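Q: Convert this sequence to structure tokens.
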Amino acid sequence: MAAVSRVHAARGLAAALLPDGGGPVRAWAVLRPTGVTVGHAVPASTAAWPADRPGPVLDRHLRARASSPHPWPQLADVLVDITGSQRGRRPAARAVDDLARRHPGALVVAAVDGPRHCTLRLGTAAPLTLDAISAAPAAPAASAAPACARRRWEALASLIHAWLAAGLPPHALAPAVVQPLRPAASGWPGERILLRRT
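A:
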């Protein structure tokens, strides 16, 4: 687990995306908060470390909310719908399919179902749909910070973009975990996020 130790030692990182297949960690992705907003979009700075390469694959992409005014959703590499927090999982799955159809330039689209669940669609040619579930137990306090929950899912979508941009296989993310490294930097509570195939 020396790779994970190096991730934790890195400065300014908010969270790490790690495959959770039970074997050795062969690759991982990390997110650095930029603190910058361009219009209604956020330029995200991420990196992925494939085990077969000598260094990280750096990725800068544009992330926007689906409710942002034109032209931001059309320009986004990562598109997140935060408006359906009361939906069930089936409507969220339909929402990501609809977003992907209307915004084919987005490599990752996500629909938030509430503070503990998000559905994501990865890729365009042969898309993979994943469920993301907070590992924190459901509690009244979890619904008290919706902005924090939204940032959690937005950061997750950016981590997945880094993974795909590095040419890493999307199927390796089912299952996977997102481990917060510095919760204060990312703005979300310090719980893990679990990814699984729908």
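The radius of gyration is 15 Å.
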